[in-house]
Design goal:
about 270 residues, alpha/beta, Rossmann fold, 7-stranded parallel beta sheet, 8 helices, 7 strands, about 15% strand, binds NADPH dihydro-nicotinamide-adenine-dinucleotide phosphate
Length: about 270
């Protein structure tokens, strides 16, 4: 088990990609703090991990709230004494055309997707630096970006901007923390079959649109993103920092579209 004894915080871990990350890190031997604003869902995931023989605890946290972030840190240290790994995964999406996007909605999305990653990333990094200074091994951080850090969406402007910002946050944090040996990377998923996307992909037109831009011919699974996260957090990635790994079934290198079979599964 690659992460035995490490303490990991995963945000937005009550479902979807965050849940898969929490489960994977626990299977790799990490003690996992499941952090989410969904208390019932988060408690359930932590309990499931414990039932499967892993170590996990739930902490309620809205990552866009400074006091919640401070509480998350305190609760983690009270439970496990250290913080070695962080997955800044919590994310939300706006759903209005650019000309109708309100300031409040823009702020709401940026507050979770970008400011949240900054607030928690900085707080955890400060803790990691103090652990390094006390002689512990340096930690690692992964930010959950998106292919929309590169591809812009006119109906999800705040989301696209937030993910573009995460690319630079990842690079800047990596440079700032490199002198301490702490690594910071990002994963940029394509279309991943979380409950939300499963609903969207039931629509045949939408399914064809997505798959016509997916050379591997299927949606990704949350576990496939968790695998990249586990790699980036582990020793196999010891010389990787400031990097964003795209996991998108081949969308980024594709210029036009690929053929899609009618009525297949997503
Ligand atoms: P989901 O919507 O399935 O899950 C997100 C979880 O994060 C939910 O439990 C949600 O709680 C929680 N959350 C939202 N806002 C906050 C907050 N401010 N503080 C704490 N928890 C919060 O998302 P996915 O699993 O699909 O996506 C996870 C990440 O991956 C996001 O950053 C997303 O942008 C990124 N991503 C996803 C892709 C996909 O295809 N699914 C593609 C590319 C990137 P609640 O239920 O209360 O909202």
């Amino acid at each position: 088990m690659a992460l035995t004894g490490k303490v990991a915080i995963v945000t937005g871990a009550a479902r979807g990609i965050g849940q898969a990350c929490a489960e994977r890190l626990a299977r790799e031997g990490a003690k996992v703090i499941v952090a989410d604003r969904d208390e019932a869902g988060g408690e359930r995931i932590a309990a499931d991990i414990r039932e499967d023989g892993g170590e996990a605890a739930f902490v309620s946290c809205d990552v866009s709230e400074r006091l919640d972030v401070r509480n998350l840190l305190a609760a983690t240290l009270e439970t496990y004494d250290a913080i070695d790994l962080l997955v800044n995964n919590a994310g939300i999406i706006d759903d209005a055309p650019f000309l109708e996007l309100s300031e409040a909605e823009f702020d709401r999305v940026l507050a979770t997707n970008l400011k949240g990653a900054f607030l928690l990333g900085q707080a955890v990094a400060r803790q990691m630096v103090s652990q390094v200074e006390a002689g512990a091994a340096p930690g690692a951080i992964v930010n959950m970006s998106s292919i929309n850090a590169h591809f812009a969406l006119p109906d999800h402007v705040a989301y696209s901007v937030s993910k573009g910002g995460l690319t630079q946050l990842t690079k800047a944090m990596a440079l700032a923390l490199a002198p301490h040996g702490i690594r910071v990377n990002a994963v940029a998923p394509g279309s991943i079959l979380t409950p939300l996307l499963a609903e969207v992909a039931k629509d045949e037109t939408m399914r064809r649109r997505i798959l016509s831009r997916t050379p591997l011919g299927r949606l990704g699974r949350p576990e496939e993103i968790a695998g990249v996260v586990a790699f980036l957090l582990g020793e196999d990635a010891a010389y990787v920092t400031g990097e964003t790994i795209t996991a998108d079934g081949g969308r980024m290198p594709l210029n036009y579209t690929v053929p899609v079979e009618k009525g297949g599964s997503p």
